[in-house]
């Protein structure tokens, strides 16, 4: 009896939900999530609806609804771009993260065609068995291809510029649902507008990207006063094709705050340690977090970001594989007092979950 009653209640609830969905003309793939936020969780925006899209027709149908109902549309990748500009109050959000298939890899031209919701990690995982790697990506591999192109992200490889330099072309869906082919020769104006365009010129659908071959690099480290760095870069790094990754971290010690630099570079080597091409996730995240909990609990005053310069064995496959180690050794340490020997500043990263 109780079971029958529960079942009929469940059926009733289900029918009401189904009827409500039908009445609102809700398109497949939409979720009733009125508040969206970026990854900082500081910028809630009340939107009309979020659509998780899986194919081109679903994207087109969201745009058609927006046209019909005069709604604004915003496009979301992994939502790491912070600030309320990435969602529009009362608008529709297209969540691209499920539009993420690798469509083609051409081993003759070393190019890959990927849907824009794929992350760098997904692209790298696909390309690695072919001995290939992404040429330019951010310091981390958690971002989507579309979100990265829309801000024209930079990486740490001094030989290449921003991501635009690695793009051969892409397909762009305009507001009316039409699709245009964009490259340096086809609709070239849109090439430079949509890359770095924050989604204002249409939805980037799939992208033809240049890949590079996997090489082995050796990690080297030098330190210097920041004033010496421009001359060092000119003489030693610029135009040096043997260096595949270069970054300099200013000190956050009291004694030489922001003056002293730890400079890391990855230099091509002919050494091939065993299993060097195997990709793996970063380890020791919990250990590192546990190590810093006391600072969070007992620290006072200042806020800074500390980077544990982990020992990565001195070797890496293509530098971007280094970034494959997700959240590579970065920890926000609220309340940490600046003190002697704490390390080097590497940038401000979002808070731990
Ligand atoms: C920890 C951290 C490290 C970072 N490191 C770097 C770095 O080394 N170098 C660097 O340059 N930047 C860096 N950034 C910034 C980062 O590159 C951008 O925030 C990037 O946009 C994040 O990608 P996403 O997938 O989260 O995009 P989202 O934040 O989701 O979107 C960014 C913009 O792109 C638009 N968009 C997303 N997908 C599409 C699409 N398919 N078509 C059209 N428009 C689209 C969105 O509407 C939005 O305007 C870093 C950010 C963080 C949080």
SSE order and pairing:
Elements: H1 2-23, E1 30-31, E2 35-36, E3 45-46, E4 49-52, H2 56-69, E5 73-76, E6 92-95, E7 102-106, E8 111-115, H3 120-127, E9 132-134, H4 145-150, E10 167-173, E11 179-183, H5 188-194, E12 203-213, E13 217-225, H6 229-237, E14 243-250, E15 260-268, H7 285-298, E16 304-307, E17 315-316, H8 319-324, E18 330-333
Bound molecules: flavin-adenine dinucleotide.
Structural features, described:
With 353 residues, the chain is of the alpha+beta class. It is built from eight helices and 18 strands. The protein has helices spanning 2-23, 56-69, 120-127, 145-150, 188-194, 229-237, 285-298, 319-324; strands at 30-31, 35-36, 45-46, 49-52, 73-76, 92-95, 102-106, 111-115, 132-134, 167-173, 179-183, 203-213, 217-225, 243-250, 260-268, 304-307, 315-316, 330-333. Strands 7, 8, 9, 10, 11 and 12 form a six-stranded antiparallel β-sheet that branches. A four-stranded mixed β-sheet has the order 1-4-6-5, covered by helices on one side. A four-stranded antiparallel β-sheet has the order 14-15-13-17. The protein binds flavin-adenine dinucleotide. Flavin-adenine dinucleotide binds next to strand 5, helix 4 and strand 12.
Distance between the termini: 45 Å
The major β-sheet equals: 6 strands, antiparallel
The gyration radius over C-alpha positions equals 24 Å
| Continuous helix count | 8
Query: Which ligands does the model contain, each kind named once?
Result: flavin-adenine dinucleotide
Q: What value does the average pLDDT take?
A: 78
Quickly give the structural class: alpha+beta
């Amino acid at each position: 009896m109780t079971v029958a009653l529960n079942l009929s209640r469940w059926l009733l609830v289900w029918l009401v939900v189904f009827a409500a969905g039908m009445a609102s003309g809700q398109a497949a793939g939409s979720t009733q999530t009125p508040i969206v936020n970026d990854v900082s969780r500081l910028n809630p925006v009340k939107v009309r609806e979020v659509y998780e899209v899986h194919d081109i027709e679903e994207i087109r149908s969201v745009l058609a609804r927006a046209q019909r109902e005069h709604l604004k549309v915003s496009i979301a990748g992994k939502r790491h771009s912070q600030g309320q500009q990435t969602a529009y109050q009362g608008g529709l959000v297209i969540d691209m993260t499920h539009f993420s298939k690798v469509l083609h890899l051409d081993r003759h031209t070393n190019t890959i065609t990927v849907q824009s919701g794929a992350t760098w990690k997904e692209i790298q995982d696909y390309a690695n068995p072919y001995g290939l790697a992404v040429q330019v990506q951010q310091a981390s591999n958690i971002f989507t291809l579309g979100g990265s192109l829309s801000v024209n992200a930079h990486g740490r490889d001094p030989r290449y510029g921003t991501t635009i330099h690695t793009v051969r072309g892409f397909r762009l869906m305009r507001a009316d649902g039409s699709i245009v082919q964009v490259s340096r020769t086809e609709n070239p104006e849109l090439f430079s507008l949509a890359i770095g365009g924050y989604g204002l010129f249409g939805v980037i659908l799939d992208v033809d990207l240049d890949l590079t071959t996997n090489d082995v690099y050796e990690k080297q480290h030098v330190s210097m006063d920041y004033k010496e760095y421009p001359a060092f870069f000119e003489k030693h790094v610029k135009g040096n094709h043997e260096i595949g990754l270069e970054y300099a971290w200013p000190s956050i010690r009291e004694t030489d705050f922001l003056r002293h630099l730890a400079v890391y570079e990855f230099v091509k080597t002919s050494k091939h340690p065993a299993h060097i091409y195997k990709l793996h996730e970063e380890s020791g995240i919990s250990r590192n977090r546990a190590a810093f909990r006391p600072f969070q609990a007992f620290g006072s005053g200042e806020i800074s970001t500390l980077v544990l310069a982990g020992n990565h064995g001195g070797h890496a496959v293509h530098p971007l594989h280094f970034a494959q180690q997700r959240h590579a050794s970065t920890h926000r340490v609220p309340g940490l007092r600046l003190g002697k020997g704490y390390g080097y500043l590497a940038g401000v990263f979002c808070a731990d979950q």
